[in-house]
Amino acid sequence: MQKSLVRRERAKKIIAYLKKAYPKPGSELTYSTPFQFAVAVMLSAQCTDKVVNRVTEKLFKKYKSPAEFARADAHVFQQEISSIPFFRNKTKAIIGAAKIVAHTYDGFLPKDADHLQKLPGIGYKTAHVIMGELFGEWPGIPTDTHVKRFAYRFDLSDNRDLGKISKDLEALVPKRDWKYVNNGLVLYGRYVCPARKHDCSDHPLSKIWPQALKRWPKAK
Hints:
Structural class: mainly alpha
Shape: elongated
Number of strands: 0
Largest sheet: none
């Protein structure tokens, strides 16, 4: 059987499990306003949601709207998020994005993935996470380290580039089910099958495709 057809059938079984296990896709990042969520997603790059939520618990009491983020003093903001990896670059991106949203979009995040990706610090993954969480639309599949790891473990992609993995998954999974992929695999990786090497022979997805037990990709 053609490789793509085999992968499509495997993906179908995996998605069926994710839909049942995580029927209401959603982020575990905490926020009160739409722009706060965008900030949280930007901060979460190469950082855990747990650490981000700990930082934003205080941060989001001070900054709520794009205008408030736009007025932030860069040096002060850096100190406020200094426990987050790449805090200097993220400070620059967040304040830059806030200024554009405040002045160009009247304080509202654009409801379009292409326009979101034109903002500093927002790439394909971040834009599509925002689209799904805030607007209930999934025009693409975001790929993070969890999705990348499982795409390899379950032989759903030959690529290592996050953007290319997204495109491979989008070709395998019907668009109506795209919303279950990222959030489902993130939660599965966070609570069922973490990145460290361990015995996962009893894990649900391993039972779907036992060959995955022999495939241990590096976390990054």
